[in-house]
């Protein structure tokens, strides 16, 4: 009997040892994580992040998957339907609710709690942007604001002082008139509508209007301040004639014109810093200031989040990389590459990393910012806005007519959300 008991005891110990060995092997097993993103300008920085991450996590292989932004969410939508989403991918505000409400991305509250992760260093507004139904789905990666980029050489040649925080909208208009030179095919400013975040959203807000109400139930396109804010931006083309036409900017985008010295000023986001820094002409000839004041000084703030696909087979490994991407170490790497990190206390490094541009302007604009306007079906009503403002910009309808159509159709969409 004693021998039998001893045999059973030894057998159990061997089984426990075997199970323990299996768990250790599983914990150290190699895994491959696919990471989806859309900005090629950040590719080298992302490679640096992967390299740094792998110093402590050599068993987690990261594969970077670049998709240009104009194809990015179309590709993701198809991948979600087919169960082939990247393990981790960039998410923005306009598309977040759709992915969260359809269970395509993973809530991370439990992971945050289990790791006792401190979220205090991240801006509250950016954390809130990626919360749905009282659940958190992303840690902030970065944020961006809008500044007035200008060509110092063109300003010098025209004998004009550079833009600063004393500028009103009228100062921008008057400087644009001086800088416009039809014989040289040079324009004072580009009133592009290609990117709402870096264009008319800012004149709407600065003029005291709004795109969508805070409760996400009403359109702001019947508000006189909204309409006037759009009109002032529109007038740069059709009244003051200091901007390329909509058709010209459809053929050659405004950023390309700015990079070749054909446009003296443009509204543009901080996420363009790497591109302007790597372009020889803009690196030597341009700088940035705060946006001019209208009824107030305002702009759009937005930030990206890293999300985990709900059908990922490597969620634990994906979480380790997501944590790292929002860490102080990763924030400093982003800062040196010209991306405003979301992690509080690392922005000074971002400013110091590019001394030839006045990047403090973007931090100053963060203090005068309003959240990117979103709702559950952002893509539906944003397409309506773009389509109708494009008609106004090309002269097919007035700003008032466009705003009336936008308001009516947007209200219908919001009522059904």
From TrEMBL:
<keyword id="KW-0813">Transport</keyword>
<dbReference type="InterPro" id="IPR006059">
    <property type="entry name" value="SBP"/>
</dbReference>
<comment type="similarity">
    <text>Belongs to the bacterial solute-binding protein 1 family.</text>
</comment>
<protein>
    <submittedName>
        <fullName>Extracellular solute-binding protein</fullName>
    </submittedName>
</protein>
<feature type="signal peptide">
    <location>
        <begin position="1"/>
        <end position="17"/>
    </location>
</feature>
<keyword id="KW-0732">Signal</keyword>
<dbReference type="Pfam" id="PF01547">
    <property type="entry name" value="SBP_bac_1"/>
</dbReference>
């Amino acid at each position: 009997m004693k021998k039998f008991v001893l045999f059973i005891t030894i057998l159990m110990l061997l089984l426990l040892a075997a199970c323990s060995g299996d768990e250790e092997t599983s914990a150290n097993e190699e895994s491959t994580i696919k990471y989806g993103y859309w900005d090629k300008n950040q590719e080298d920085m992302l490679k640096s992040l992967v390299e740094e991450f792998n110093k402590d996590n050599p068993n987690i292989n990261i594969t970077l998957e670049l998709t240009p932004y104009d194809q990015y969410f179309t590709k993701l939508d198809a991948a979600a339907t087919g169960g082939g989403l990247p393990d981790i991918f960039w998410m923005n505000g306009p598309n977040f609710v759709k992915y969260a409400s359809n269970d395509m991305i993973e809530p991370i509250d439990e992971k945050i709690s289990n790791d006792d992760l401190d979220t205090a260093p991240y801006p509250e507004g950016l954390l809130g942007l990626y919360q749905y139904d009282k659940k958190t789905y992303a840690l902030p990666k970065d944020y961006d604001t809008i500044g007035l980029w200008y060509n110092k050489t063109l300003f010098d040649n025209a004998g004009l002082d550079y833009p600063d925080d004393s500028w009103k909208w009228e100062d921008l208009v008057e400087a644009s008139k001086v800088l416009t030179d039809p014989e040289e095919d040079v324009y004072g400013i580009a009133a592009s509508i290609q990117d709402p975040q870096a264009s008319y959203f800012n004149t709407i807000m600065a003029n005291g209007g709004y795109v969508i109400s805070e409760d996400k139930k009403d359109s702001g396109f019947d508000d006189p301040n909204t309409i006037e804010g759009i009109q002032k931006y529109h007038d740069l083309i059709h009244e003051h004639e200091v901007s390329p036409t909509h058709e010209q900017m459809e053929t050659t985008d405004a950023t390309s014109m700015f990079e070749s010295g054909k446009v003296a000023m443009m509204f543009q986001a901080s996420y363009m810093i790497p591109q302007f820094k790597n372009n020889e002409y803009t690196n030597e000839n341009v700088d940035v200031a705060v946006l001019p004041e209208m009824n107030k000084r305002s702009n759009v703030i937005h930030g990206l989040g890293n999300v985990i696909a709900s059908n990922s087979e490597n969620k634990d490994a994906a979480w380790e990389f997501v944590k790292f991407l929002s860490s102080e170490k990763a924030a400093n790497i982003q800062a040196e590459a010209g991306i405003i990190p979301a992690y509080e206390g690392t922005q000074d490094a971002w400013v110091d990393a590019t001394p030839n541009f006045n990047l403090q302007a973007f931090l100053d604009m963060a203090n005068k910012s309003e959240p990117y306007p979103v709702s559950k079906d952002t893509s539906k009503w944003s397409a309506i806005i773009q389509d109708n403002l494009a008609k106004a910009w090309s002269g097919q309808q007035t700003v008032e007519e466009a705003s009336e159509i936008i308001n009516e159709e947007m209200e219908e969409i919001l009522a059904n959300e």
